[in-house]
Amino acid sequence: MTADRILTTHVGALQRPPEAEAALVGEGPEEALRDAVARVVRRQAEAGIDVVDDGEFGKSIWQKYVTERLEGIEQRRHERLPLRGRDQSRFPEFYAYAQQTPDVLFHGSDRAFWAAITAHPVCVGPLRYRPGAVDRDIANLKAALEGLDVVDAFMPVVAPASAEVDLGNEHYETQEELLFALADALREEYRAILDAGFQLQVDDAWIPALWNQEPDLDLESYRRFCQTRIEALNHALEGLPPDRIRYHLCWGSWHGPHATDIPLSEIVDLMLQVNAGVYSIEAANVRHEHEYHLWEDVRLPDGKKLAPGVVTHSTNLIEHPELVAERIVRFAERVGRENVIASTDCGFGSRIHPELGWAKLEALAEGARLATKRLWG
Amino acid sequence: MTTRILTTHAGSLIRPPELLELLARTEAGEPVDDARYEDVLRRAVVDVVRRQAEAGIDVVDDGEMGKATWITYLYERVSGIEERMVPVEGATILPPSRDRQAFPEFYAEHDAAFAKEIANQARVHETEQPGEIRAEAKIWACTGPIVYDEAALRRDIANFKAALEGVEVTDAFLPVVAPASVYWLRNEHYATDEEFVFAVADALRHEYRGIVDAGFLVQVDDAVLVHEYDSILSLGGSVEDYRRWAELRVEALNHALEGLPEDRVRYHVCHGSWHGPHVYDPPLADVIDLVLKVKARFYSIEQANARHEHEWRLWEDVKLPVGKVLIPGVVTHHTTVVEHPELVADRLVRLAKLVGPEAVMGGTDCGFAQGAFIRRVHPSIQWAKLEALAEGARIATKRLAGATVAA
After folding, report:
1. pLDDT value at A80 more than 70
2. Residue A255 and residue B113: Cβ atoms within 8 Å?
3. Residue B105 in contact with partner chain A when CB distance is under 8 A
4. Can you tell me whether residue B153 is helix, strand or coil?
């Protein structure tokens, strides 16, 4: 898709309203979910978002929802584990405080979200995808789009590497077997979404975040670990059209210092191996904003696009549209104006107050209009 | 000669637990041994000065350890003022604003969380009517002539001097409040607003001079000068109303600064440090003439947050007078994420290219603890941000030196 302007989108998760939450936890009618999707799609269009989604209202949480859609999984619970990792080791007092204090790392009390956070899915048999929930989500999004003027629509899904995190294995011989079985199962979901005519966005925050989570890995072994996961994802994507696929990387959206995040420069080659047409990356928060410079040295392959975050959930302040425009223009100057889609750092759901989320999407759209004027004259 | 980009910050830093415990007891009306308080305070200043030097901050302060808040400390240091609780709508001490009107649900949530921090300044009571609540907040009233008592200032200066001994820094400053920023203070004594504002300025004059005479830079904090713009407009006032209000106060500030060497004066403005959307903050362009009127050499302004980061470009159009120095925020209290030093360097370099490297010093958007019981980030993040600031300034210095050689 080419346009003579900067298009806007976002990363996917939006703040689920209470009635949709009730439907998702089985305490309200399914129609409430459908109505909530209709409203959130309309609201995105009104905010000036060109490529919209269903807000992920049909999913408990982006990386674990799929375990609720698979045969061969037993849902167990574990206590909320103490956070561990490089950032946690460097800022032990902050993380201790953050875990005891509500609304520091997260925002909101969505029950579907919190139940999934403390869930511990374990693979106890062969993995098989059950399409019921994705069919419902597709139908809800299709219905919501009727009569609406948007450029395109997407649906987020989890990547095998991110679904694998915190997934116990009591069935497959090796971790790699589990990983590729996950890829095979996920492929069913990917295909269903593409067949429905939507863009597919594959979320893989755990690729960068694993550097934090696994402090014992050195760079080489971490990259080797990721390489296998990228191969599993490409296996899942085989034969699917790259120009309909977006790949989202981020460093984990929790409100922490992120001072030990791995630089994008160390993993950009892995990212570009993914058979996708659009790469969605963080670029609007203070740890990663400077990384637009990377594209002075790294060439974005022909036919690929970047969807950098130009507004972020990591601050309550609403980005000034002039700042949004400046960020977009910086990318456009490096990779070409036709290859930039203005987006968010990560999802807003469970990270920021809904009023702020909408104001940020409006600032994003306004900033894209300003950038278009500057870039197309 | 290459110019090194120096670093500083906006002033208030998070108080240590030992000091907070004593302050909390005082607030609760429990007896606190004066000698013990003085000792804990003195040690807090020693620690905070050393820690700033270790973090790589060149121009340090006492972290405002001896002050209740950056505003209300003054009310303990002048005569003619009494405290009282008054009914308010909602348990907040934050100013009215269009921001608040546009984001009511967000602010309701924000205020509920913030109320726990500022319990000493605002309270919510349940009334006898079930479900009905009544909120009240502490205000101060000027009921007699304002006269400055230097005792607390002398203590702060002595503590700061002692703390600086043997610590290697470039310079040192102490923050003070500006006449415009004496918030929550009602005039019930002076005949006119102007008389009242100038009486405040006369009192502050002693404080400003005392600090400069002690050999320190004085930093005049004036967030209210800027955030009153949104407040006045939210209450139905006009921009002209705001300008009239602000111009009188800038004049009073210059009166308070009269006779002081400009190169020992820093002036800090910001848009209010609360973590709100800040959509209705006035553009810096609309108030910069007021700011530059103040007889200071250093101007400290926000430039590290999502609402004001783009304003570095203002200096493409506005000429910074010769000899003046900008202290842009290049790290902010508005996000928990710690700034990457490369971002800090980017922010410093682009401004240095507009106004000259000698006219730029790396700073913070605002303080990290506007009051003893308020903290805008966790202490460990405050220090990580100051370290990132110092690291970014080193990178910027190198880049600017490289640019000079290349030219």
Report:
1. no
2. no
3. yes
4. helix
